[in-house]
C-alpha cells in the first residue's frame, strides 16, 4: 500500500534555505558519444548487393546453357560444312526393268525406287513398280566425296535428316500415312566405299502404297 506522509507542523521545523544547484561542469574526459542513428541507406545497399548476385548467377547460368546448346548442335553444323551431292529428283527408270527385282543390294538402290516388305537394315530388298503395292520409297540420296574420311554416326544421322527435310513429295503422299526413315554407312561399309546417306518414306501399315510419292 502506498505510504502517506503525515502532515508536519511548519512552526516546529525551521525552513531549510535553498541552495542553488552548481552549474554543470564537464568531467575530466570527453562525453561518451551517442550511438549513431540507423541509416536507411544501409538496407538499400544490402538489397542491391543481393540483386547483383542474383543477376550474376542468372548470367552465368545462361552462358552455361548456351555452351551446352552450341555443343549439342556441333554435329549438325559439321554435317552442313561437309561437301557432297544431294539428289531429290528421280530419273526414270530408277532401277532397270523388268520389275520386280529381288535380292537387290542397298548400294544398287536408285532414287525413286519402291520396295516391297521393306527393311532398312536388310542386306537385300525387293524393288517393285511404284504403281503396285509397296511399303517404302527412296526419296532422297546424299553422296559424300570418295576421299572424305568417316565423319561419325551422329554427323551422318544429321545429314540424313537434312536430306529428308529437303525432299519435296507429290500429291500422292497425301493419301497415305507415311514416316521418314534414314539409312547411313557404318564404319565397315564406309571402308568398303559406301558414301551414300538415304532417306525413305515408309508406310507403317505395310504394302499399302500404290503410287510414287515423288512429284
Summarize it.
The protein is an alpha+beta fold and 215 residues long. 27% of the residues lie in helices and 16% in strands. Mean pLDDT is 76; it is low at 1-40 and 64-79.
Fold and architecture overview:
The protein has helices at 41-72, 74-81, 153-165, 187-191; strands at residues 85-87, 101-104, 114-116, 125-128, 136-143, 179-183, 196-202. The relative contact order is 0.14. Strands 1, 2, 3, 4, 5, 6 and 7 form a seven-stranded antiparallel beta sheet that branches. The chain has a domain at 85-202. It is an alpha+beta fold and 215 residues long. The radius of gyration is 45 Å and the shape is elongated. The model is unreliable at 1-40 and 64-79 (pLDDT under 50). The protein contains four helices and seven strands.
